[in-house]
Write a structure and sequence with these properties.
108 residues; mainly alpha; 4 helices
Length: 108
Amino acid sequence: RSFVLRIITLAQALPNTALGRIVRDQLLRCGASTGSNYRAAKRAKSNADFISKMGTVEEEADECMFWMEIIVDAGLMQERLVKDLYNEADEILAMVVASIRTAKRRKQ
C-alpha cells in the first residue's frame, strides 16, 4: 500500500495543466492497479491464476515507470523528485518478474 500512497502523493504534486492532468490520471490508474492486482494475486485460486494476476502487476508497474519517465522528460517535475519512487517501481517489477518465473517453474 505504501507504493500506491506514494504514487498518489506524486500525482497530486503534478501541475494542474492539461498535460499534468492527463499524466496524473494515467499514473493514478496504473499505480492503483499495481497494488490492487498484487493483492488479488495473493488470493489467487491456482498457480495459473497467480501467474496471470502477477502478469498484470508486472505490466502496471512498468507503466508506472513509463509515466514517471514522461513526467521528467516533459519537464513536469525534476528527476530528483521522482527518482526514489521510480527506483521502487523498478524493484517491485524485478520482484514480480522473479515471482512469475518461480511460479512458472512450479507449474512445469
